[in-house]
């Protein structure tokens, strides 16, 4: 899927997104008394040294349980949130070197599809006007063409006839259609990068596959680059070229999607894959996730963060944090004992 476009091999411009050693710590809100008596400020280590690159036209998935830092990575990557440390580059430009005005201009090249279309649409604004807003902000010079551009993109996402839907309001359409509006609004500014943050998680099961098909189709048609966030690997399978598995703010495994499905090397990934439901209800193979809650990112476990839940953990796992290592070509894993799964 990835290498169909005409990009030459590894020149630097190949990458639209480059994230290096990204950290994002949020200060913990403490009560007044705690603030007086505590000597150290505490932090939620939402993202703790994460690196990845996305080539043009590629879809990188990030998968992990709730609270693993997916949304925060997405928001920092497109400059909606400031990082604590590390580097984020878009098309070779370090976001932290940009003024607010420059960042605002760059925004039309990166758009977001959020999880909850109801929360991201103004109930009092017509669908057409909601989609049109981005054009007004980013392309004020082509004002007289905006209506036609909006109608065009509405047809593309399946809101047809577009003239019928243009003046409707969010509460007059279905949930699946609302997510189509959100997709249209993201695409109308002709972005290069789309951050999709669990875009189908709230949609009705019956329309999820259609929405995924739509995103795949639009990705191919406009050669979009995606950062695709999901909590389940079944969704990732439809659309992702590469996938990074997150656990408590760290990437524990990253590789091509097919490679990960064929040769998972991290015990957490193996557990996630075992939890992917099998389509045929007669052939239920769904295993439970490893026991235990996802631990607290304020005081993550020592050594390997997954060790309290890991069926293969040994003494060293509580003592030493495993580095990401390339155990198979292009396939990185952070586990002291991953060789046994090779
Ligand atoms: N604005 C914030 N202030 C404080 N903590 C936050 C904030 N945003 C996220 N967090 C915390 O950071 C961690 C990762 O959150 P998030 O990125 O939303 O994870 P995910 O999208 O994988 O569910 C969680 O522990 C969450 O509570
Ligand atoms: Mg999230």
In short:
The protein has 342 residues and is of the alpha/beta class. The protein has 13 helices and twelve strands.
Describe this structure in words.
The chain is an alpha/beta fold. Helix content is 32%, strand content 22%. The protein is built from 13 helices and twelve strands. Strands 6-7-8-3-9-10-12-11 form an eight-stranded mixed beta sheet, sandwiched between helices. A four-stranded antiparallel beta sheet has the order 2-1-4-5, covered by helices on one side. Helix 5 (127-138) packs across helix 6, helix 5 (127-138) runs parallel beside helix 8 (175-187) and helix 6 crosses helix 8. The two termini are 25 Å apart. 38% of the residues are buried. Residues 1-10 have low confidence and may be disordered. The structure holds adenosine-5'-diphosphate and magnesium ion (MG). The site of adenosine-5'-diphosphate has 12 residues, from strand 2 and helix 2.
Structural class: alpha/beta
Numbering strands along the chain, what is their spatial order in the largest sheet?
A: 6-7-8-3-9-10-12-11
Number of helices: 13
Please indicate the percent range of residues in DSSP E strands (runs of 2 or more).
15-25%
Q: What percent of residues adopt helix (DSSP H or I)?
A: 25-40%
Rg calc: 21 Å
| End-to-end CA span | 25 Å
The topology string of helices and strands comes to: EHEEHEEHEHHHHHEHEHEEHHHEE
Mean pLDDT: 90
Biggest sheet: strands, sense, closure?
A: 8 strands, mixed
What is the molecular shape?
Answer: globular
How many distinct beta strands? 12
Ligand roster: adenosine-5'-diphosphate, magnesium ion
Which spans of ≥5 residues are poorly predicted at pLDDT below 50?
1-10
